[in-house]
Amino acid sequence: MPTSDGPSHFPVFVAPLHAGHQRPAGYVPGRVAPVRLPPPAKAPPPPPVKPHGPAPLQRATFSLSEESRSRERARDLQQRRNTFICVGASTGAFFITLLLVLSLRSGDVFDENCPDHNPSLSSWNPGHQPQRAAVVQRGQLFKLETSATLLSLTIQSGGQVVFADSADGSKNITLRTHHILIQDGAALHIGAPKCRYRSSATIALMGRSDSAALPETPGLGRKFIGVLGGGTLELHGTERVSWTLLTRSVPASGLPTGGYAFQRNFSRGINLRVIDQDTAAVLFSERYDTHDSRNDSRTLTRLLRSLPAGRIVALAVGDSAVKSLLDETKTAIAERLGSSFVYNLKYRQAWALVSEVQGGNATCSEDVREHENHDTRGRALASRTFSTVEGVAFSVTAYSEWKNGFPISGFQVDAEDQVVLNLQDEVQPTWRPGDQVVLASTDFSMYQAEEFTLLPCLWCKPFCVVCPGKPQFLHVGEVVDGVDMRAEVALLSRNILIYGEMETSCYGKMCRFYGHDTFGGHIKIFGNFSSVHLSHVELRNMGQQSQTGRYPVHFHMCGDVDQRGGYREPTYVDGLSIHHSFSRCLTVHATNGLLVKNTVGYDTLGHCFFLEDGIEQRNTFYHNLGLLTRPGTLLPTDRNESLCTSIRDKVYEGYTPSPSTECKAVSTFWIAHPNNNLISNAAAGSQDAGIWFVFHSSSTGDSHGLVPETRAELTPLGVFYNNRAHSNFKAGLIIDKGVKTTNASAADPREYLCLDNSARFRPHQEADSRLPRVAAVIDALVSYKNNDVGAWIRGGDIIIQNSGFADNGVGLSFASDGSYPSDEGSSQEVAQSLFVGESRNRGTNAGQNKYWGLGGVDAKLRTLPRNRTFPIRGFQIYDGPVRLTRSTFRGFVSTPERFTSAVGFSLKNTWQLTPRNNLSQLSFHPSVSRPGRLSGSFKAQHVITRKTVGSEYEFGSEPKEEKLPWVLNMAF
Questions:
Q1: Per residue, what are the HEC states of 35-94?
Q2: Fewer CB in a 10 Å sphere around the end CB: N or C, the chain?
Q3: Looking at the domain assignment, is residue 554 inside a domain?
């Protein structure tokens, strides 16, 4: 059950407890393939029989020969010699062990939890031998002390390689190789769960797809880390906050109040701007015609005398300012602003000043230029840099000049090349200067995600960081109109890095689709491994777009990897940063019980978090973030329109695929079986969908025919709680459709595994349609700024509750088979949810956004979904039966270009509607215009008493209480 760890954090998912147990004799983890039991061990020979009682007395004899006495003396001498040798060897071993421990303790405190503290390890310094295929085998336990280059590294038969570490984190070890293979009881360790790696460790995977340096390894290919049966891979970097949320919006200008720019010709007199030193907001602007009006000069004097100390003042002359400029005004400017030039200003002389009130000459920046023949020699330019209370540096500039007979004056307030990110979680000191972070889009375009590098900051609080550069887009950091639109901020850097070395230009068959090398490295884990745990590791330039089964992290046919599979320490990945990947993020293939948490997948090709064959179950995805998920080529569902129609090598006889029905499904979370848990994840930008539940009618790929069919369509949904989906081009969440499970043929020329419209989710107990239904519960979903639809749900029974939908083309669309014989009796329900048509998050006219126009309650310019005339709807009914109850609508306002409705129908629906659809206890905010409340033909059955809900409010303010015109209870 979900629990809470405080108001500022996501709820923590506590997995059900399972009684621990030892692996039974002969048991092999994973249960992937039949395993032959080892032959019974031979019984040891019986020990010699010790006689009972005293030994029989021997008759003494004194007639020993000289030869016998000589042999006896030699035997005694040999025994004494052996004794000396044993004692010496033992003493030597003791001193060697003591020296090892002392030498270890001289640089670090001995810790048995640290794999590199094992005294059995031998120091290993293989050096740079790019032609050496190194093999570490039984009895070889190595501690890699320095950087090395190898052709390949194979660890087998109980061998072990451990990366050395140091207490101060000063080690910097880079291992460059074409591949690393771990098998047969061998292990690779970098840190441990209870002894995190503190230094910098890098594994660089070399090679091209057409390289002749090494032959391909069966099942692994090239450029990999492979874990075969019996292998151990333990990588544990320093624990860091993987990702968090903004708590304050970051505007495109970089300043909380936005930037400011002004320029005008013939603005005679002194032009003035007063700027707030704490926020950079322009508080006051005015022009004083001190050339023609003494009253204006007196008014300016009174203003300057009234300003509080510390205020920023900018002055610029347009045309001329001295004819009626009084001495008292000059004195005020000199005393209050520290001007040195004001007493000597001349007719039509250009003058600009920026200063702090009562700051003295030291805070004053001013400049003058002489007027000659209707021109000045250059521009009088005054500029100073200030800092807001949040630490954002900003510049204030004033300028004045004559140019080609025209007087020009102007002002500019702009952020310097840095931005402060205020964050929900305490990130100091685990986020460090030089680290890379990415800030997610909060608009319709996923391409508004932006990368930054952290700067040193002495004043930064634990909950903020400073980055160089100015953002190009608005990133919301607040709850807007009741919907949490705070942008995700992810840390990309880790102190353990695995990356693929890439070519500087494209080569091979992928160049027809991509203009860069897409043959990165990959990690592949096979079934029956001994132990695999990966935490806080950075994976960059991983995945191979030209090959199936070559992903940044790939659990391949591993079976049960938790306690059910015999693993006392269930397998997990935690805190990984997978970015700039060329094929997916993390693939779970015929693997059950895996925990994936706190992992970031950014800027990747193809489905990011990917369940492959439709039989993967009991996996838990907790607090993961995926953003900027681009189209790929591997599967039809990965492809966009152009890739769909141009890749036809697996269709029947040149058939041209239909992109809208067979492809265009690339998703950040591609969930091929409902019996998996999604908790507190964020899908923050995909070319098609954020989260897609797809239903395989039978197992596919390598799993087909190997396991009993799981009947995914009938299987109850796992836990779905507290997930977010936004900035996706098609949809935030989709629960619908399946994949084609037959090869292309004349009867059906479509490609194997293309998107198929045959599946309908209808969960029942034990996946048996004869047993009672089990409702699938979608709890606490936030879905906003998705171009097409916030959530498209087909099937039954499905309940959506406690959710928020905002700024989508369509907020939520339900489609059900309940009125048809295929699943008679099913239904869907939405309860206690909020629908916002157009919020105060107006977005930025840039990125992938194509449409910009008037909209919203304030009728201001904003980004738009689909097109300017697309009729925005909150809740869309397709067929039914559906129930919508105890929900609120706000911000649905029609424009001259389009209609808008809080509740409406699918525009292209030619199917019938059931009369059992029902709406009840709906609250319409005053920002829902009367023509936009309901579309279609409705008859009100009841009109209930008015109900109070929150009204419009600005960012950061509290909602006001206000009466609604009505609350409806309707059926149609």
A1: CCCCCCCCCCCCCCCCCCCCCCCCCCCCCCCHHHHHHHHHHHHHHHHHHHHHHHHHHHHH
A2: N
A3: no
